[in-house]
Amino acid sequence: MPKALRHTSLALIALLTLPNLVPLTAMAATKAKSSTIPVITVSNSVTKVNSIIHFQVALRNNNGHTTSLPSGATVTYHITHPTGAFLIPSTQSVMITSPGVYELSATVNGMTSKAVSITANDVVTGVQLSADQPFLTADGKQLDKITATVVDASLQKIANFSGTAVLSPLAHGSYVNPKTGAAISTVAFSKGQATFYVQAGTSGGTNDTILLSNLTATSRTPMSSVINYGSTSISYIYSTNQPAGVTLSLQSPTLSANGTAVDTVKATVINGYGQPVTTFNGVASLSPIKNGSYVDPTSGQALTSVTFHNGIATFAIKAGTVGGVNDSVSLFGLTQGAFPLTNISYQTSSINYVWASGQPVGVELAATSPTIVADGEQTDTLTATVVDAYGQPVTSFQGTATLSSLKYGTYNTTGNSLTFVHGVATFTVQAGTIGGVSDQIVLSNLASPGMTLPSNLTYGSTTITYTWLPTNAILLASATKTVNTTASTEDMITATVPSATSSSFLWSTPIETTFTITGPASFAQGTSQSTIQAYILPGIPTKLPIYSLPNQTGQITLQAAATGYVTSPLTITAQASGAPSGLSVFTTASTINAQGNAQEPSLSVGTPFTLYNVQLTDQAGNPTVPTNSDPLTVTDNSASTGGTLTYYAVANGQPTGPALSNTELSLSLTQNQPNVQFAVINNTSHSTNPTVSVTDSLGYHGTAAGYTASSGTAEYALFPLQVLSTTSPSTEMMQAGQTATYTLQVTDGADHPVASAGQAVDLYLDTSVKNALTNVTINGSTSYTANNPLVLTTNPAGQVTFTATTPTVGQFSIDTTIPGSLTTSKQVFTVVAAANYPSQLLLAGSSGGLSANWPTTAMQVGQTLPSYVASINPGITQLYVNLENNTGNFLPSSTQDTLAITTSNPNILAIAPDQNWQATNSVGTVVEGAASNALPTITAENSGTATLTITDLSNPSQPQILETVTVE
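RE: above sequence
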């Protein structure tokens, strides 16, 4: 089969099966004379699809005479078209397979003829319309030429079509004969096309849609039963001197509501292009307003209408006496002479009447950061500002307001009362321990003695969002968000990597971190040092002082970088400040690091202390410097709280020198040291939290607590999630024959972790338990007893680690004791065979089927996790966890394990607190097959991607469920 016949339609295949067909190349002819050229003629140059065109090949000499091909001539035929066509062998015919233009030629004895074109038309299926121009000026004269083309299904022109069509009526223009101007309603087609004209109307800003109907063929061209009529649009625009609208220009969008202030308004008549119509002279009426009045800007007389000269009119608005309202200003009824103008667009402008400058109209509320970590310690400083109508602080305001109640965080104020000084009040919100939730803060009941306030005061609000404490984050915090640039001012930076939560006390090595400053600050006073390297010990804050550069203002940005850790930059504002008007005292909880231990040898690494920062502030609350030396006096109320406090001087953020009493502290604020620090260590228990107060020589006063009444003395060494009880010890599960590693945390009597290095912990196998196993290996030995305990020493986080192994199924107990403490902690271990040991977690649905198949579509904002999973697992209303052993079998219904569920981004997937899952760290106890193992409520809060992790904390191997969900 020739190559040209290998890829054809079914029609071609049918033709090729006919008998006695031979390839075209098999035709023989004698060689033509060199003085002749081949020519090709066709029976019809225009045809329909699926028809056959016959052709002839002859030789033409130089005189134009043609002769037939001599015998034995070698002939090859060529035909081209994008969709293909084919020659019918031995018949000198062409089969047309699709609409379009075909090129047919022949080569005779090496000479090729000129190509002949064949046009193939399909059935008429539609009419296409196109306009020469999309716009016409609405002058009643301008013409636009419209072309209509009859096409087939491939949008090819039907070249042999002739016929007529009806023109659909127009709303604004008209169809005309361009030579006579007479109206037309039909058009005639010739050779597949028709042209006609649309004449513009006189209404600018309008448009017409041109459409044909009732297409009728006078030729024999076949037509589809359904014709698709295309359309085109023409827009009519105004002429340059034709009014189309009126614009307004106010001198000021606001007026003081004092009854006398005026605002001049300019009205301009414009055309359809937005250009002024300078030839217009006429009148328009003023739309009524409620709170002000229209007046003549020159005479002050009242107005109800305005007169335009050369397209411009001016008038004035006089303010009333009520602030906090507005008026909508507009015109109507534009008239030129005695003729009202139609289709005019009138612009409307708004003018606002504001209270006079210095009159309180509302309170603005701003947070330093909208998001803080729910670690129970991090705080966010908020500022409330009384403002007037211009958004300026009302510095004369002295008064109070009420703060809305918080659901998750706490205020540092007395009750919910807030006091304003010079129109500004600051307060602090301290995060709780629940992440994925928010508190909305709103003010109310603003009051000031002797000052009358508007009844429609506006109260701003802000939202504080608490996020779960990330496990691979470096948290950066500063002692103050603003530093003074009048002199080099110190700001203490705290860098912390969160310690392991109570669900996993795992110890990590120090993290080498690079800190970088950009902006007007340095790591060393008097230099421009912008980079420093330091180590961060997980759970122990690292202190880094930075210093502002004198007389350089702007934003200071601190960035931390460590392999495998993420961080957000910390921004501090460096700005000049005004005269002192207050004293700021704020605190930071910290612990002794190796550098602090060297400065104060009597304090061991890990000892907790509170770092106090004291500085003067100006009227706006920004740090400032004293004109002269400003001595400080420190007092406390420890005598009334039943305990004692010890004071220390500070160097590099750590206590230094000998312990002092508060009266032995010698502190002064100076221009060179506008921020001073001292450290306080709580030595004994207190009945309530003690408070430290600072007063300067100018009489300014500030107080702060910054620590709790707990003594922090080590009393227990606990397993993860262990309950403080010697009568009901907690239970861990382990697999027989496997070695498990466990971490203990030293805690005080209030169950608070004690980060103290070098603390001894005694650990031994308790053989007094009934039927207790005795073949348990602890750290490689079976000999540890109450009289011969394994003595472990805590790391700086107050943690110790050991291993345990037993080959036998049963139970055993490990007891831990802090030397000198009268309490013992017990941990019961249940050793199970592999068949009963949980090695895998499976997520199940309330309908009974496992929901292992997660939807491939995105979760929607506001949707809960069960409803999302139920989209491909019908019937699920809640999700719970099944425990499975390493052979793939479910464990008995009596099996109990402790699980934890976390989200990588609580702003995207939020986990709500639940009675079966502790709010602080989303930890709960799962009972196989019971309702109590249902997951807490998990909701899509915002768009993005987050990963849910469900971990079995009872098993050292920690089997997990990891599921990443996209929310949109």
